[in-house]
Design brief:
Layout (H helix, E strand, L loop, with lengths): L2 H11 L15 E2 L13 E7 L5 H9 L11 E3 L8 E5 L2 E2 L3 H10 L5 E5 L2 H4 L9 E3 L1 H4 L4 E3 L6 H12 L2
Parallel strand pairs: 2-3, 2-4, 4-6, 6-8
Antiparallel strand pairs: 1-8, 5-7
Helix pairs in contact: 2-6
Length: about 170
């Protein structure tokens, strides 16, 4: 197939994507009194922080930003620096070694910012509760605005929470 023919085919077909499903009830929990800052409507840059997880949630975050669930189509994009981020997505319990780096990451993220905790371990420390290496849950270290429950959470729930932040 020639390049010109391929380009005509692409132009004629256009963008093909499945329509977004409405979020399921209980897909995410928003902190009482929290409203998404208007500056974040439309798109949000996301900095992911693994504070000490088993990597189950990381696999689901990777799937959420992969080609199947495609979080970028709702305006969420992963970035490498907290200085470029609007959203800090945290997974796992907060270990003793990650408490200060997590605070520094959140502090380095410019205001207005949203902190999203992903997974059950970010709330109650799950299986790791009471360990000598655990500083506590994410709520104990930084203020969480949106929580995505699940062990590990479904990628659709992660996309739904990011969709609530971007308003798309």
């Amino acid at each position: 197939m020639s390049t010109a023919r391929l380009l005509r085919l692409i132009t004629r077909t256009g963008r093909v994507a499945e329509p977004l499903e409405p979020p399921a009830d209980g897909a995410f929990v928003v902190r009482d009194g929290f409203d998404v800052p208007p500056a974040l409507r439309g798109s949000a840059q996301v900095r992911h922080v693994d504070a000490g997880s088993c990597n189950g949630c990381e696999i689901e975050v990777g799937a959420a930003f992969g080609p199947v669930y495609d979080a970028e189509r709702v305006g969420a994009r992963l970035v490498a620096s907290p200085r470029h981020a609007d959203v800090v997505a945290v997974t796992g319990v907060v270990t003793q070694n990650m408490a200060e780096p997590l605070r520094n990451t959140v502090d380095a993220t410019p205001n207005p910012r949203v902190v999203v905790s992903i997974g059950d371990c970010t709330r109650g420390c799950g299986l790791f509760a009471g360990s000598y290496a655990v500083a506590g849950s994410v709520d104990d270290v930084v203020q969480v605005d949106v929580h995505v429950p699940g062990c590990p959470p479904d990628p659709r729930a992660i996309v739904a929470a990011l969709r609530a932040v971007t308003g798309r």
